[in-house]
Amino acid sequence: MKYINQISVHSKNLFILVLALTIGYYNSNAQESPQKVDLKAVLESALANNLQIKQAQFQEAVTDENFKQSRYQLLPNLNGSVSANKQYGLFFDQTAGTLINGSTDAANASLSSNLLVFNGFRLQNQIKQNKNLLMADKSNVEKVKNDLTLTVINTYLQALTNRDLITASQQQVDLSKAQLNVEQRNFDVGNKTLADLSQAKAQLATNELNLTNAQNAYDLSILDLKQLMEINPETQIELVVPTLPELSSVTKNYTGKEVFDQAINNYPDIKLAKYNSEAFKYGVKAAKGGLYPSLGVGGQLFNSYSSNAVDFTTRRRLGFSDQIDRNFLQVIGLNLQIPIFDNYRNRSSLNIAKIRYQDALVTEQLAKNNLNKIINQAVLDLRSAEKRYVSTQSSLTSSQDAFEVIKKRYDVGLANAIELNTSQTNYNKAQFDFIQAKYDLLFRAKVIDFYLGNPINL
């Protein structure tokens, strides 16, 4: 029996070990298979999950309900009520029309309706105001989406920049390792000095540091993308390498005025400011309505029952059906209210509405001025990026040619280690500058497309 128990314990331990290895295998496979995403996937995830967009959409839904409610204000209301009670003691019975000292069973039912006929067009202007506020909130949702889109594009291109910097840094590390091996062999046979070997080691250390910095920058940009996508930071993602367009084809000779004239009709920030201005304009008209008389019409149907009710002629106690016929009351009437003195409330409301309208007009103009400034700055940035791209491309070609010449001279002993390392450092810097200039130019071109309302893709 003891032997059997030992076998059972060993079998159980073996099962747990196999289970743990299986789980670890699947976990490792999951970690080795990151989710591949391109710019479109990142944008879709960000737009679908962003909390600021959800908040803007909630505000739009609230404004939509306010708009609906203001439209229903034009319709007559309808209210009904039913009550039943038993009363004790001394009281005047309205239905029986007599003073009662005892108990009474009573019931009442009523149906009433009121319609506002005129109030200085206040309701109509409130409807128009709420409609413009709704359109403003819709534009605000688009504004939040646009701002997020631009941020995602910038972050995505920054991640691609850092990825290419990693590739360039790794190439420089590999080159430095090869040079160090050559220096070590030459030093071992006495062809190179310790200073030459130290220079090679220093160059390798510098390039390894550049690789580490590039890797850290890439990891941070990937983390930024995950946060924009609103996904778990532990989720592994891998950027799909896009086929970048020819940079000569992504730029055109735009002027700031051309871009501004097209953007001003479609840009959500301008639409938001325009709709707010329109809303406050109707707010002024609605406030003026408070200075006018208001006219309403209303009607009511009422019936009541009392256990003490009697016929006024025969003094015979009346039953329920008799009272329903006798006590049925119909009322219809007009209600005219004329504002004579309201402690300056309506006049103050009108003045405040006018001030808010003027402030909205100023805000609208500020939005236009700000857009004009941003667009002209974007056009200048694009021109500067074009020039920087051309100059860094030329610098890269020259630095690469210079490095290859210096390396050949170094291999035959016509150049020292300091000259070789200086040439390689210049080549490294030219490589990094060109990569950054390439993606900066692409981003600046996409910014112009963004303001023109063109589709954003790579």
Automatic annotation (TrEMBL):
Instruction: Supply the alphabetized keyword list.
Output: Cell outer membrane, Membrane, Transmembrane, Transmembrane beta strand, Transport
Query: Mainly resides where?
Result: membrane
Show the GO cellular component annotation of the record.
cell outer membrane; efflux pump complex
Domain of life from the UniProt record: Bacteria
Report the sequence similarity comment from the record.
Belongs to the outer membrane factor (OMF) (TC 1.B.17) family.
Gene3D superfamilies to which the protein is assigned, alphabetical: Outer membrane efflux proteins (OEP) (1.20.1600.10)
Q: Which PANTHER family match?
A: OUTER MEMBRANE PROTEIN TOLC
Keyword DNA repair present in the record's keywords: the answer is no
Q: Which Pfam families does the record associate with it? A: OEP (PF02321)
Molecular-function annotations in GO: efflux transmembrane transporter activity; porin activity
Protein's recorded name: TolC family protein
Its subcellular locations are: Cell outer membrane
